[in-house]
Amino acid sequence: MKAEPVDPACTELPSAARGGPVSHAVSRVARLHRIAAGKALRAAGLYPGQEFLMMHLWDAGAVRQSELIKAVDLDPSTVTKMLQRLEQAGHVRRCPDPDDRRAVLVEASADSCALHSDVEHAWTALEEHTLAGLDAAERTELARLLAKVEENLCHRTEGCPDTR
Question: What are the residue ranges in the chain where pLDDT is below 50?
Answer without folding.
Answer: 164
